[in-house]
Design goal:
The protein contains five helices and no strands. It is globular and about 50 Å long. The mean pLDDT is about 90. The protein has helices spanning about 5-25, 30-35, 45-70, 75-100, 105-130. α1 (about 5-25) crosses α4. By secondary structure, it is an all-alpha fold. It holds the Pfam family DUF4345. It comes from Zhongshania arctica. Keywords: Membrane, Transmembrane, Transmembrane helix.
Length: about 130
């Protein structure tokens, strides 16, 4: 299997996951938020959760899906995922240093996000080398 095809599969899987997570935040925000602790939020905060968590993830998933359908630059999509995974994982790690109550779930998520970022970046660079 070619690296380009592997890259397309990675982007497709992440796009599908982001769309599903985005929809989950839109439809069941309290249930999703409660997976990492108890939350009591008012209607305005609930709108922000739906818009921010649901909207951004759904939008990014749809963007990646459109990139796949249009057969646009897979290298760019992988690089975008690397930047996003690095940002999210990095913020989790920095937050873990600041907060006193660290959950293993967040630490595992941070490590998975950083590893995913590295994988996307390596795959992006490998595809770019092969096409040049």
């Amino acid at each position: 299997m070619s690296l380009h095809k592997v890259g397309r599969i990675v982007v497709a899987v992440v796009a599908a996951m982001l769309i599903l997570i985005g929809l989950a935040y839109l439809l069941f925000p309290m249930e999703i938020l409660s997976l990492t602790g108890q939350f009591t939020i008012d209607g305005d905060a609930l709108i922000d959760v739906r818009a921010t968590y649901g909207g951004i993830q759904l939008g990014l998933g749809l963007f990646l899906g459109i990139q796949l359908i249009k057969r646009e630059n897979i290298i760019f999509s992988l690089f975008l995922l690397a930047v996003i995974f690095t940002s999210v994982g990095g913020i989790r790690l920095v937050s873990a240093l600041v907060e006193e109550d660290l959950s293993y779930l967040h630490m595992l998520a941070a490590l998975a996000e950083i590893a995913s970022a590295a994988g996307c970046m390596l795959l992006s660079k490998s595809i770019a080398k092969k096409t040049n």
